[in-house]
Amino acid sequence: MDISLVVVPVDFSDCARSALRYAQKLAPVWDAELVLVHVVDSRVAHRIAEYNKEPVEKVRERMTNQARQKFRKFLKEDENGKYVKETLVSYGPPFQEIAIKARELEADILLMGGYGSQGSGQIDEIFFGSTVEKVVRLLPCPVFCVPIGWDEMV
Questions:
Q1: Which domain holds residue 64?
Q2: Strands (E), 93-154
Q3: What residue ranges of the chain have pLDDT lower than 50?
């Protein structure tokens, strides 16, 4: 299998940072480029808009701009920009948008953290994370789930 494009979902958590570092170690081995994807969760945007009594589009725009700023900071830390071809900010249900972007980009593999900024709680989230589990079911390409700390093992 020829791997030239790796999609890495990023929620700016330590787990996502670990997955990105792991991807950066594999990228030169595969001669691959990385595309990072962050999804602004539409459900959260709707809740914030309702709470603040403001249009959801305004909340979406603010959250998207915040995500772009976080990407810049995230990529400056520890040379996280190495091998990164592009960063994308999308909007919608995270599992769905990750799958859509991976398909649109024709990703050879998706490499993502085992759990995200939501933390862990229920047993399925401890092992897979609800987003990872749903993405695995939607994509035809391999999905590699990286537990936190694996970047130190390679």
A1: 5-152
A2: 109-113, 143-146
A3: 116-128
pTM for the model: 0.82
pLDDT in tens, 70-115: 999 998 886 767 899 999 999 998 888 988 999 999 999 999 887 6
Phi and psi, residue 80, nearest 5°: -70, -10
Number of domains in the chain: 1
Question: CATH number of the domain that 148 lies in?
Answer: 3.40.50.620
| Rounded CA separation 146/114 (Å) | 5
The dihedral sign for the CA sequence 16, 5, 80, 70: negative
Tokens of 69: 């700023």
C-alpha angle 67-68-72 in degrees, rounded to nearest 5: 115
